[in-house]
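Worked example 2:
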Amino acid sequence: MLIVLCGSFGNLMAQGTGAKDTVKKTATVQDTTAATPVVKKKSFVKNTFDGNYIIDNQTVMVPIKGTFEFDIQHRFGTINNGFSNLFGMFASATMKLGFSYTPINNVQVGFDATNEKMEVDWNLKWAILKQTKDGSLPVSVTYFGNAMMNTQAKDANNIFVSTSDRFGYFNQIIIARKFSEDFSLQIAPSYTHFNDLLGYQDANGNVKSIYNNDNFSISASGKLKLTEGMNLILNYDQPLTQNPANNPHPNLSFGLEMRTSGHDFELFFGNYSSLMPENNALFNQNDYRKGQFLIGFNISRLWNF
C-alpha cells in the first residue's frame, strides 16, 4: 500500500511540474511577440515641379537615379523693335545645349555649352531635404552650383592672364513647398563669383572696377496647374548687390509648361537674355519696365537607364 501511495504522489508532482513549464513557455512566446517593434517608413511629396527647369532657374527637383536628360534652351532678341526684326525672332539669339545624369539617389551632375562667349559649365545638383506627406518636414531643400568657363580665344576684348581668369561660379540654395496638387512655390537665394572682370583706368591711371566680383541675388518661382499636363509658370529674379556701374535689372518672366512622360516643354516671355546664371545675375540690361521682353523656350528630353 505504501508503495502504491508513493507512486501516485510522484505522478501528481510530475504533472504539476509539467503544467508549470507549459505556462512558462506560453508566457515567454507571448512576451516575445509583444516586444516586436513596428517601423513606419517616411513618405515624401512627389512632383513639386514637373521638371529640372522653371524658365531661367533650376527647380528643387532632382530626377530619379539612372535618369539621363538632354536640354535645349533658346532666347530670341527683345520684342521692342517690332516688325523690324519680327519682334526679336530674327535678332541675335542665344542658345544652350545641356546634358545631365543622376548616378546616385538625390545627386545630379551635368555639362552645358552656349554660343554666348563660347562658355561651358560643369554643374552639380543635390537634394538635401525632401518635403514629407505627414508635414514633419514642410519644405524641400536643394543645392545647385556650377563652374563656368569662357573658352574664347584671346583678343582685344578677352585678355586673360591665366586660365583661372576665365572662370565664374554660381551657388544657390532652393527652398520649395508643394501647397497642393495645383500649386507649388520656391525661393532661391544665390551667390555669384567671377575671378576676373573688365575694368577701366581713371584720369590718374588707376584701374577701377565696373562690377563687383561677388554678387548676391534672390529669385521666386511658382507653378499653377491649369489642366492635366499643362501649367502656368512664373518667375522673378532680383539682384541684391549694388555695382559701381551698369547695375543689372531684375527679371520678370511668365509662360506655359507642357509635360509628357518623357518631355518637358516651356514657352515664355522674360527679360533675361543669357543662359548662364552668372551672366544674368550680373550683366542683364533688359528692363521689363521699358517693354524689353523676349521670347524663350526650354525643351527637355529624359531617358531612364
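Residues 127 and 142 are 4 Å apart (CA to CA). Residues 1-10, 19-29 have pLDDT under 50 and may be disordered.
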